[in-house]
Write a structure and sequence with these properties.
alpha/beta; Glutaredoxin; five-stranded mixed sheet; 4 helices; 25% strand; globular
Length: 109
């Protein structure tokens, strides 16, 4: 993954996402998904902007279907913000950086 964006997997999800001491933005995506490719630069930008205050990463739903199933991912891209191991926000489909910042700002300040 480029920049500060991490790859979350079935092997590291519990430790890196659910047990994180800071908010974690997770992008559920797949290689074949056009809208996922559109949202990728937005996720990169958020990662760069939020730096050390928020972990940002991606879960490939084809490679890790158990995670997608656990969080009832029916459409991709789906962005989820976890805080203290709990999903606090969910955005399905493409959203602009400004829209995502507004939706998530109360959790990332």
């Amino acid at each position: 993954m480029a920049g500060n964006v991490q790859e979350f997997t079935a092997a590291n999800f519990d430790q890196v996402v659910l047990k994180s001491d800071k908010p974690v933005l997770v992008d559920f995506w797949a290689v074949w998904c056009g809208p996922c490719r559109q949202v990728a630069p937005v996720v990169e930008a958020l990662s760069g902007k939020w730096g050390e205050t928020v972990k940002v990463g991606k879960v490939n739903v084809d490679d890790h279907p158990s995670i997608a199933e656990k969080y009832s991912i029916m459409s991709i891209p789906t962005l989820m913000l976890f805080k203290d191991g709990v999903v606090v926000e969910r955005v399905i489909g493409f959203a602009s950086q400004a829209a995502l910042e507004q939706k998530f700002q109360q959790y990332v300040a």
